[in-house]
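Propose amino acids for all 173 sites.
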């Protein structure tokens, strides 16, 4: 009976005692995930931005020609233009300076800044709601109404081929 009483006292004492840390054998206890706060989403941090705009290439293609435009800035007008694609438009010459086409609706320009267009610029002209490929921007200065969309490399003769029918505009990369 003495042995039973001693054993019962030992068991009761063990239940009332504070928990003892486990002996270390080199292994660490698993961390409590709730104690460290939210776990960062590593895949989202390591993945490239899905909505990257700068570097996007947009192709303007007719039966006779194709011109690639590289988007080189991220503005509300550029994002809205990209959201319209794919699209078909008809281009015409304007004043021996640019090839233009009218978009189906005005772009949301938000806080997009104006520009001082140069040869090789694709622009959006806010008062008329048109795109323009400048190939002779000499004498044209800065305007709040002329928004830069991107740049291209094509001659005036290559741009003239876009005037021959409908032009498909789509993102190619």
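Proposal:
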């Amino acid at each position: 009976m003495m042995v039973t009483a001693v054993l019962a006292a030992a068991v009761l004492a063990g239940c009332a005692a504070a928990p003892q840390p486990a002996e270390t054998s080199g292994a660490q206890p698993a961390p409590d995930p709730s104690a460290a706060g939210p776990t960062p989403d590593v895949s989202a941090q390591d993945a490239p931005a899905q909505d990257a705009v700068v570097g996007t290439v947009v192709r303007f293609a007719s039966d006779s020609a194709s011109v690639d435009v590289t988007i080189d800035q991220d503005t509300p007008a550029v994002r809205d233009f990209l959201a319209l694609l794919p699209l078909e438009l008809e281009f015409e010459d304007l004043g021996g300076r640019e090839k233009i086409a009218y978009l189906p609706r005005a772009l949301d320009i938000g806080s997009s800044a104006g520009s001082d267009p140069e040869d090789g610029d694709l622009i959006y002209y806010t008062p008329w709601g048109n795109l323009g490929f400048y190939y002779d921007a000499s004498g044209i200065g800065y305007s709040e109404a002329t928004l830069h969309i991107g740049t291209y490399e094509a001659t005036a003769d290559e741009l003239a081929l876009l005037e021959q029918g409908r032009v498909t505009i789509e993102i190619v990369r």
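Helices lie at 2-16, 42-46, 76-84, 156-160. The radius of gyration is 33 Å.
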